[in-house]
Write a structure and sequence with these properties.
eight-stranded parallel barrel, nine-stranded mixed β-sheet, 11 helices, alpha/beta
Length: 426
């Protein structure tokens, strides 16, 4: 978890120049805390490494859609990858440019298509023949021409967790490789459609370069077939999925990723797009939580905290590993006997009534009741996947910029949970 933006100073964890206990005192827990410098540095790293190779980096909004983060990325020149009408509305509310926005997703509704056509997005990443027909009819009814790109399923193993693999033929995503050419011909012959690109996305948390190369080469072979059919493309979208380090992973260096793209697409004139999400935001955030109770059993020790699977679903969903650090470091008891605390192996669990409600398992820590913990690398798919299960209001979110703290989402109020509900009249 420790980066230049999350450091221990005199035994206490800081985010930039702010001590985490100060944030807990002001905003309570659980609380998501982000570093503006870390977000900016991540965007700058993409710009520097991919300069001259990739023309547009479209942030995958599903990773974290807070308006402050979207606004920051928009001001840094990024585009956006969306998968719903709600995400489109978020991008627009945050000042994002619809002309730099691509619309992915297997289940776009007619209402979502209408909103995107009206906004003037860069393109729709079409994922089925049925979707293509509905989009064509919707655009024709509105008197518009829909810019389309097909998301191709290259049947490449991304070598990641099965729940976040999207590029195999058994996955629900994309158009099968051998069906794509015919669909491009159909789209090119449809007056209400304009073919502009081609897209792929093979999965998430990918830490090996070889699957990208294999998929990119298959994508290029299809582009060459389309050229033979007289179909020219404006862009090729390589997708996202670049992994980060949660534990001991070795993420792909962006310079190596850029070099692979140079080699595969040498001599091509089409613009290249990428759609990173996790790589831009994961390491920029922590989940701050407080220990309510310590409970020792016959075989396990439990640290029961005020955060839960409702705040961070990833461990319960696919046993994801997140680093856990005590915000204030305690001395460990030694044989000399000077220190008062001993290290134990703890399961970090929440109050939700599910056995799967855990944030971490078997972690060696020195803990007391009331201590603060920082769940690291939590900026991606944390708040975005949170829920109100067990009638739990969602956490607040704050942004740290140097020594300044800004609340970018207020803690949800319990009474808000049932505002849209109605009691039966009889």
């Amino acid at each position: 978890m420790m980066t230049n933006f999350f450091q221990e100073r005199q035994g206490t964890l800081h985010v930039e120049d702010v001590a985490l206990p100060d944030i807990a005192a002001q905003f309570g827990t659980p609380c998501y805390v982000y570093s503006r410098a870390a977000l900016t540095a991540a965007a700058d790293e993409f710009r520097a490494a991919l300069n001259g190779v990739v023309d547009l980096t479209c942030y995958a909004v599903k990773a974290n859609g807070n308006l402050a983060i979207l606004n920051l990325f928009a001001r840094l020149g990024l585009g956006f990858d969306i998968v719903s009408g709600g995400e489109l509305a978020r991008v627009l509310a945050a000042g994002g440019d619809p002309a730099k926005t691509v619309f992915s997703g297997v289940g776009k509704t007619v209402a979502e298509m209408e909103a995107a056509l009206t906004a003037g997005i860069l393109c729709f990443n079409v994922e089925s023949a049925a979707e293509l027909s509905v989009l064509a009819a919707t655009a024709a009814r509105l008197g518009k021409v829909a810019p389309v790109s097909f998301r191709v399923n290259p049947d490449v193993d991304a070598k990641t967790h099965p729940h976040i693999s999207t590029g195999l033929k058994d996955n629900k995503f994309g158009v099968p490789f051998d069906e794509t050419r015919a669909l491009y011909r159909q789209a090119a012959a449809t007056p209400s459609l304009r073919v502009v690109g081609i897209d792929m996305h093979i999965g998430s948390q990918i830490t090996e370069l070889s699957p990208y190369r294999e998929a990119a080469e298959k994508l290029l072979s299809l582009v060459q077939m389309l050229e033979a059919d007289g179909i020219a493309l404006e862009h090729m979208d390589i997708g996202g999925g670049l992994g980060v380090c949660y534990r001991d992973e070795q993420p792909i260096a962006l310079t190596d990723f850029a070099q692979m793209l140079r080699e595969v697409f040498a001599g091509r004139s089409e613009r290249l797009l990428v759609e990173p999400g996790r790589r831009l935001v994961a390491s920029a955030g922590v989940l701050l939580t407080r220990i309510l109770y310590l409970k020792s059993g016959a075989s396990k020790n439990f640290a029961i905290v005020d955060a839960a699977m409702t705040e961070l679903m990833r461990p319960a969903l696919y046993e994801a590993w997140h680093p856990v650090n005590a915000v204030t470091r305690r001395a460990v008891m030694t044989n000399g006997g000077a220190a008062a605390d001993s290290e134990k192996c703890w399961d970090i669990v929440g109050p939700v009534c599910e056995s799967g409600d855990f944030l971490a398992q078997a972690r060696p820590l020195v803990l007391r009741e009331g201590d603060l913990l920082a769940i690291g690398v939590a900026g991606a798919y944390g708040m975005a996947m949170s829920s109100n299960y067990n009638a739990r209001p969602r956490a607040c979110e704050v942004m740290v910029d140097g020594n300044e703290i800004t609340m970018i989402r207020a803690r949800e109020e319990v009474k808000k949970l049932w505002e849209a509900e109605r009691i039966l009249s009889k």
